[in-house]
Fold this sequence. Notes:
The chain is α/β, with parallel strands linked by helices and 382 residues long. Helix content is 37%, strand content 13%. β6, α4 (87-99) and β7 form a beta-alpha-beta unit. α4 (87-99) packs parallel to α6.
Amino acid sequence: MTADAAAPALRIGPHTVWPPVVLAPMAGITNAPFRTLCREFSGGKGLFVSEMITTRALVERNDKTMHLIRFDGSEKPRSIQLYGVDPVTVGKAVRMIVDEDLADHIDLNFGCPVPKVTRRGGGSALPYKRNLLRSILREAVGNAGDLPVTIKMRKGIDDDHTTYLDAGRIAVEEGVTAVALHGRTAAQHYGGTADWEAIARLKEHVPEIPVLGNGDIWSAADAVRMMRETGCDGVVVGRGCLGRPWLFGDLVAAFEGGGAPAAPSLREVAAVMRRHAELLGEWLGDEERGVIDFRKHVAWYTKGFSVGSEMRRKLAMTSSLAELDAHLADLDLDQEWPDGAEGPRGRTAGSKRVVLPDGWLEDPYDCSVVVGADAELDTSGG
């Protein structure tokens, strides 16, 4: 908010989050290097959540998973997002986090719209089974001790099968600290326009706890507008920061009433790209692996700039920092921030039929359909 209409700080259990801005977990994106960049631009302000961790892999101490949950010493509070479909396994994962002091805040994901997850009853399909949702939340909160537990969800399966109001009430009853709502159904995937009115309705429905809004926040102005229009207590920023970690600096300025930072030139963007690739190499323990992992970010960083298809191809095929440096040096680095870099980025896939287990919609309280372990896949949090 601006100085004349300041927003209160967001409270997540014992943690005060200012400004009330949360980095959305995104698989393969919000790892430690990207969180470091976002925190640097925000001056350490806000809340930055790990990429999604499956509870089964955590309990089994999968090597990749154990690497993903490592936090930099400067990350306070340490925030981890879990995804699970079995109440007992979720409870074990949460207890492991508490007993081994692995995080300071736990978020549970119920927003993934990916067909290979929903067809097994996971992700954004799961809240339709109200009793299963309640059981998972009860196990999580019951094993969390003093750690706050929050959830992120979508409106529901489709417009005929919305779940967010019931899920929000269940969350309150089971002791969840805050809820975040992506204003789309699973059927919408990432297409169309996010329903901010649903965020406002959820806030009215569960006034006991903070409600965070998610969806179509492409700029700091969007975040401020969402809070004004919906009355939500904070915002969750996902695709809007892809290739734009400095968005969190813009958000701090917008909420604190300061002047908006100048948009970066391509020279400044290139410097962030280089640092991002370097951080990934350090985190993975291998420069080549880091640069290869960075490739997915190239199109987001260069969106709207006059780079050319051949140079984009070269940048997306680099395998060393020296090679990346050479390609970046060949760019017209004096370009100012282009209008074409604004607006939506990342996935924009439109409506799709939601694939569900046979009989899933027959009874929202019947939990006889078993959600198997294969519903726990490493996918985006939605």
